[in-house]
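Customer escalation, tier 2.

The customer says the design service returned an amino acid string that "doesn't look like it belongs to this structure." They asked us to rerun it and document both sides in this ticket. The original structure tokens are below, unchanged.
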């Protein structure tokens, strides 16, 4: 085995991830870390007990070299928010063992998905990259923030996962999308300002802010997003498409071809301020965020990530 980059390791696992497969994943983690002493310089495995638990565990990881998050994008989001509570000088590296239905951050990192053994093999031979995170109203995100119909779709998929739907990944996102899109109305009026530019009025149907290219289990909403460039990528509608056109854009987003449409605009930003006339659907890494005013920033090189 090449020299592992993990060092002293804290693994935080969501046992309920991927319809309960997280518990088996945590068992394998204990076996792997206990069997291959060269993988770490000591380890601890902690199981989460409910929503938000991983934030506090990660925030207490002072003295660890690496914190590994085992589960879906939800537990990774919590771990990232916990790590960001620590001063940069005391902040451990992040590693992910993706075990979920969306796994969009894993796609961004190029990690093997839903294969705990394969993820460990990748991590112990991995290298460390300095990557940015986003921040909105004090909440950090490692992959996606969105408003409007796409947020409503993401929140619907989260609710359906909690209800143990048999669908996952792209299929789950598509069926939720068809349900939400069929209810599309006039959008959510918004005044947006990017990087101190003159504010613009938008009727927001689609507004996504990305660290990495995908969300919803692989939809390439910001196909050129690079988590190491110190910028956030934004995709938003500048015109209100007719319903058939909206459905077409939804399909094209699977491969990123929606970016060619005159209905949407894509750009890179460091800072944005959004003021909505009424509270819009909003999600951050799949978690609901409430409000009408949102202040968004990028934090370059915020995390050292093993991948």
């Amino acid at each position: 085995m090449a020299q592992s980059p993990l060092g002293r390791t804290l693994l935080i696992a969501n046992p309920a991830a991927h319809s309960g497969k997280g518990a088996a994943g945590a068992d394998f983690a204990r076996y792997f870390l206990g069997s291959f002493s060269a993988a770490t310089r000591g380890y601890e495995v902690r199981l989460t007990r409910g929503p938000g638990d991983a934030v506090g565990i990660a925030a207490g990881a002072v003295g660890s070299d690496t914190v590994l998050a085992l589960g879906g994008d939800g537990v990774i989001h919590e771990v990232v928010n916990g790590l960001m509570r620590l001063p940069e000088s005391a902040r451990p590296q992040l590693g992910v063992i993706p075990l979920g239905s969306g796994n969009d951050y894993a796609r961004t990192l190029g990690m093997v998905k839903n294969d705990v053994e394969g993820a460990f093999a990748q991590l112990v031979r991995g290298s460390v990259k300095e990557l940015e995170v986003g921040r909105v109203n004090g909440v950090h995100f490692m992959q996606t923030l969105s408003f409007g119909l796409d947020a409503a779709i993401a929140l619907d998929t989260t609710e359906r996962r909690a209800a143990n739907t048999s669908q996952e990944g792209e299929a789950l996102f598509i069926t939720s999308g068809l349900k939400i899109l069929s209810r599309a109305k006039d959008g959510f009026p918004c005044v947006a300002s990017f990087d101190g530019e003159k504010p613009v009025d938008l009727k927001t149907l689609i507004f996504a802010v990305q660290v990495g290219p995908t969300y919803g289990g692989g939809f390439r909403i910001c196909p050129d997003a690079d988590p190491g460039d110190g910028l956030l990528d934004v995709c938003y509608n500048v015109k209100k498409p007719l319903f058939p056109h909206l459905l077409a854009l939804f399909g094209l987003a699977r491969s990123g071809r929606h970016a060619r449409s005159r209905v949407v605009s894509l750009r890179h930003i460091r800072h944005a301020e959004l003021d909505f006339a009424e509270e819009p659907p909003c999600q951050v890494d799949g978690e609901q965020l409430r409000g009408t005013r949102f202040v968004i920033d990028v934090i370059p090189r915020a995390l050292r990530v093993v991948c």
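Tier 2 assessment: The sequence is consistent with the input. Helices lie at 17-35, 53-59, 73-83, 104-109, 116-124, 149-162, 169-181, 243-252. The chain has eight helices and 16 strands. Sent an explanation to the customer and offered a walkthrough call.
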